[in-house]
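Task 17 of the worksheet. Students: predict the tertiary structure of the chain below and write it out as structure tokens. Keep your answer in the requested format; marks are given for formatting as well as content.
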Amino acid sequence: MITQKEFTLTPHRRGFHLVTDEIVRNLPPLPEAGLLHLFIKHTSAALSINENADPDVQTDMAAIFDRLVREREPYYQHTCEGDDDMPAHAKSTLVGASLTIPISHGRLNMGIWQGIYLCEFRNRGGGRRIVATVVG
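Model answer:
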């Protein structure tokens, strides 16, 4: 059986934000076993799985990405939507628009230190639309 639900995450400022609990609250009922596929419907934000315990990881990830893909590079041609826009597109390509997570015993089967991140690459990205597809 396949079920699908679309919802909007709470808006976040630029950075890496743990959204595991918010995503779980918005999911349809989970089967005993299966897969959860998450897809973000945006080109300037991404989804990732990473450390859920130490908030320094979120700060460090933001710093790494801001150094990796800088704003106001002279070779950018897509500049009409602000200094953070083209870097946001590049960063979202590096991280990706989707995740697949196993479901076991009716729960997401992630490691004890893993959480789902919204990687918000715009200064003011707004609420981000997520499509959750449950297979099982």
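Marker's comment: The first strand starts at residue 2 and ends at 8. Residues 4 and 133 are 4 Å apart (CA to CA).
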